[in-house]
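Input:
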Amino acid sequence: MSRNDLTIAVTGLNATDNPGPGVAVLRSLRDQPGFTGKLLGLAYDTLDPGLYSPELGLAGAFIIPYPSQGVDALRERLRYVHAECPIDVIIPTLDSELPSFIALEPELRALGIRMYLPTREQFELRSKVRLAELGRKAGIEVPASAVLSDARELYTIHEQVSYPFMLKGVFYGAQQVGSLDEALGAFHGTVAKWGVPVIAQKFHAGEEYDVVAVGDGEGGLVGAVPMKKMFLTDKGKGWAGVAVNDPNLLEMTRKFMAATRWRGPCEVEVMRTPEGRYLLIEVNPRFPAWVYLAAGAGQNLPWATAQLAVGEAVPPLPDFKAGTMFVRISLDQIQGMQTFQALASTGELRAG
Amino acid sequence: MTDRLQRLKDLALSESGFLFDPWTGLTFSLNPTGRFILERLREGLGEPAIRAALQAGFETAPGDDPSRDVHEFMRQLRESGLLPADEPAAQG
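Output:
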């Protein structure tokens, strides 16, 4: 049986040209038939576009401190939000905030706030730095890679990872390099933005596929929908995509879940080479911005996550409909000053 | 049913010849001849039977070579991953 009356708070309302997943998660929850609960937005910036979307029907929204301000600031703010609008479930959606939410899980649980997140160990195991180890453990093919903390290592990197390869920041960013000169430039640029280490990962040509999935924390798969990007922005973000049903992608996702006993949402990024090899490129520890496609294709994974968070059993999700597409759109949302004014002056917004 | 036949049956083929591969997400546009050949493949027919069906179902001009059409179309299916790349020419 599902709980339809939950108050669910969601982060990542920065629906920009490099969108956070929050708006897609909120839309999925809003669309769930029978839902009678409340949705709250937790935002880092007063101009996060999701705050200005009447379609989401937010009962309230609150500015929360950036992860760089530390766990104590977040704890204090969430206590305040919970006192004002009691929360049943929080769905964090951004990589950078997850360590703080994972650390706070026991305290929030004591307050009655539930989350459905990986453990710290699971979170670390899927990091780019440990992808090779994950591949060995899960029996999944991954590209050759090396972890670099000093630019001098680039002079001999070709002995481990041949050109061309991707240089990736530990949290974000990836650049393809084909020579030592390019690699040095990309290394310093990445370190300046994201610090060390930097990950060199062998580049494989092919088609990229992404799978949004939820693991049950015991090695099983709650649901999963694979997607092929049909149109990319200049930042490489999918602006259009289609649900696909390649059983190899689902099998790889199952192996990942079984090996890590992953608990909660994730996005599995896979490269399919022209020879038909499937290589695990990356695992993101949260919903992707395109997760609304999963709900549209028949599997409302954010809803399942909220139910699992409060301990409700989730029946097997229906098969998704391959061929379901998403095409993103940029819209100008027109508002008076009142929303911005409330957020800028008080850091919060209450409906009507 | 063989994996090959199941794979072909899983393809979404519209009346207009628009083809969607639900495994890869790739889409294709088929002309009437291509659509006819694909439909026969999905029925389990091999190359010789499809050639005969093509000759019976379509008007051909002198010099037209249905076997070349079938062969070429199947080559394209292999290239697109819709048929196994190492599959020998089908019989029957």
